[in-house]
Amino acid sequence: MSLLGIVVLLLIHVCIVGRAFRRSLMAANRGERSSDSSIGMSANDLELLPCFDFKAREKGNSPVDCAICLENFKMGDKCRLLPNCNHSFH
After folding, report:
1. Contacting residues for 76 by C-beta, under 8 A, at least 6 apart
2. Contact criterion met (CB below 8 Å) for 83 and 49
3. How many of the other CB atoms lie within 10 Å of CB of 49?
4. SS3 state of residue 66
């Protein structure tokens, strides 16, 4: 009986993964994501993001990290701010 349950779960998994794979193939065929496009923001979109010089707040606060490279910001670093999540990066 438990073997039958495992087989049923396996079939459901295969159907779900197959459906997702078919959807991604159909999207690629429609040209929703071209093969020559890079993943990420364009240079023009990047320039539109707010830019600021990093200034440390109060002593004793934990250091603020770049959301991309995970390095600590230093005084005077040029940073950009993502609008929806307010993450900063170099």
Report:
1. 53, 54
2. yes
3. 13
4. coil
Which parts of the chain are beta strand (E)? 51-53, 78-81, 88-89
Please tell me the distance from the alpha carbon of residue 48 to that of residue 60, in angstroms, as a whole number.
33
Contact 46, 80 (CB under 8 A): yes
Asked if residues 52 and 81 have their Cβ atoms less than 8 Å apart, the reply is yes
* Spatial contact of 48 and 41, defined as CB atoms under 8 Å apart: no
Reported as a single tens digit per residue, the pLDDT across 57-83 is 666 566 677 777 888 888 888 888 887
Rounded to two decimals, what is the model's pTM? 0.44
